Every structure is written in structure tokens, then in C-alpha cells.
């Protein structure tokens, strides 16, 4: 009688070991929910500040909540190491986001997605972000379908994924 044990493959262990041992800068995507308590936003801001201060290039999107906190931290550390990729054009962003986004040096707009729903445009945007990063850090709820799909897609692309749940 043979039982199957679900162990990670050797190449996954090697990939994680290499990521831990890498001392140079990385391209790190930081994404998450819009619905984040202010105390959590402060922690995310501190994390992004520390990541950028360590020389990492941070990628995120332009939504309120997690992404806005990531932008604040990165802008404080080194604005040149921040890239913000929007799901749609800048004009489609809420006013409170636009004020912050207008200060970002490396801002990528996607006006071709203006005709899509925000959920559809966000999914496309998240794919672009993970295609550009080496590692993804994500803050989500268990019902954050778009974000959880993004994490799954990043894992399939062999990216290092760290997922934090709010609930």
C-alpha cells in the first residue's frame, strides 16, 4: 500500500533558498485590499519604507488602502525606486488617489482599459505588475478573489509570494 505525500518539489525549495540568500535589490510588488484599517495601513507603509530603503524597487497599483500606504512609504524612502501601474487612466482614479499619484515619478497609466469594469481592469493590471516583479507581497481577505487569483498566477510564474490575511 502506497500513500502519496504532498511535498514541495526540490526546485521550489531551491528557488526559496536563492530568494532568501539574495543580497542585492529585488523588484517587489506590494498589492492588497482597499478596505484596510488605518493601523494596518501604517504597518504596510513602514514595510514599504523599509523595503525601498534597503534598495528594493517597489511596484504597486494606485488604489486606496494597501496600495496608497505602500506608495507613502516608498515615496518617503526613495521616490525613484517606486513604480505605480494603474488599472486605467489617471482621470478614472478617485480624487483622493489622484492627488497622491500626481507626485509619483514612475506612473504607468492604462487608458485602453477605461472601458473595462474596475474589477476587470484591476485583474489585467495585477498581471502586468507580477510580470515585472520577482516577489509579490499581498494583503487580502479570504474573499478577495482578484487578489487571491493574482497570488495564484504569481506562484504559477514561479514568483516568491507572501500572502497576509486581514481576516
Automatic annotation (TrEMBL):
Gene3D superfamilies: 3.40.50.450. This is DNA recombination-mediator protein A. It comes from Thermocoleostomius sinensis A174.
